[in-house]
Specification:
The chain is mainly beta. It has one helix at 3-20, and strands at 30-41, 48-59, 62-71, 84-96, 103-118, 125-141, 144-154, 162-172. The chain has an 8-stranded antiparallel beta barrel.
Length: 181
């Protein structure tokens, strides 16, 4: 087989395997929405607090998530006269493991746009790249959940990655399959 055929076979096998070991057959298509708080840490500058909103569509452990975020203005370690704020969005494909004891794990790959707006007259620095996410979640009630995510933003526009940690509270999504609250 050619390399492309081998890669296609491997990827297809992986997707089928992940679907067979997820919540397959337990839930239909569902929607969720939520809000979050977090921090963003570009290289060599101070961290900044962020707020975010999210919307997603999920089925059998797989979810398509859209997140928009904006940060407060933060001063840099390099120059106290050049503050920055971050705005952006990401759209990605996430996979959540089966919920056991009201907990699960999540992995996600996203296409991300991140803009740095500086307080001086410097033009906004527009970047795009991929974000790789690892997360842990827990159910807080029958129809609400909390997730804590670590995001690693990799862009060819930067020599170093940008790190983000966020907590998101969201409603909707898959029906609860466990004990009653």
């Amino acid at each position: 087989m050619k390399l492309k055929q081998s890669l296609l076979t491997i990827i297809t096998t992986f997707v089928i395997f992940m679907s067979a070991n997820s919540q397959a057959g337990r839930q239909g298509i569902s929607y969720f929405y939520g809000v979050g708080l977090g921090v963003v840490a570009p290289a060599d500058v101070d961290i900044s607090a962020t707020g975010s909103v999210m919307f997603g569509v999920e089925e059998d452990g797989w979810a398509l998530e859209a997140i928009a975020y904006s940060s407060l203005e933060a001063g840099t370690d390099i120059s106290t006269t050049r503050d920055y704020s971050v705005n952006g969005n990401q759209v990605g494909l996430a996979y959540r493991t089966i919920e056991k004891n009201s907990n699960w794990y999540k992995i996600k790959i996203s296409n991300t746009d991140m803009d740095f707006d500086f307080s001086d007259n410097t033009p906004t620095f527009v970047t795009s790249g991929n974000t790789y996410t690892l997360g842990w979640g827990m159910r807080t009630s029958r129809d609400s959940r909390l997730e804590i995510d670590y995001d690693y933003y990799d862009s060819s526009d930067f020599s170093d990655p940008v790190h983000m940690i966020s907590a998101r509270y969201f409603w909707g999504g898959s029906a609860y399959q466990g004990k009653s609250f």
